[in-house]
Design goal:
Chain lengths: 86, 86
């Protein structure tokens, strides 16, 4: 039950990035996205992943694995679609 | 040690939203932010918080408490600064 709650929580904070990826990919506009946010976020999610492996917590591992790939995609979009800093 | 890793991870994925809040607040522009992302994200972070309380995991509780307040702020900005859907 707790495991299911964790998996649903992880699924939501993970799939949350899908509409952002789709939107940014469609509009090719990332001006309003913060570069600092995505750099810090990718770093943090990587550490969460390591933490998940250490405490052997499946929801944390699963969620952060997918979140990391989506966050890296957005970071790539941000760096590709505009050259302004921040 | 593991606790410290979790706290650093949580701190990073949490403070990551600060540059986004500052940027959006300064530019008053949230066009490129996805409404769907912030709705799903706020919901997911709320569930993470409940999960953290159930498994008594301090890093999860601390991180998601702050992340939730920042994500709600961004959701509010998105709803205030533009009326377009998505």
């Amino acid at each position: 039950m707790t495991m299911i709650l964790g998996l649903v929580a992880g699924m939501l904070t993970t799939i949350a990035f899908i509409p952002q990826v789709v939107k940014t990919w469609k509009t090719k506009s990332a001006d309003d996205l913060s570069l600092g946010m995505y750099v810090a976020f990718c770093l943090g999610v990587s550490l969460w992943l390591i933490y998940g492996f250490i405490v052997s917590d499946l929801p944390i591992i699963a969620a952060n694995l997918v979140t990391l790939s989506l966050a890296i995609t957005l970071l790539y979009f941000k760096l590709t679609y505009n050259n302004k800093t921040r």
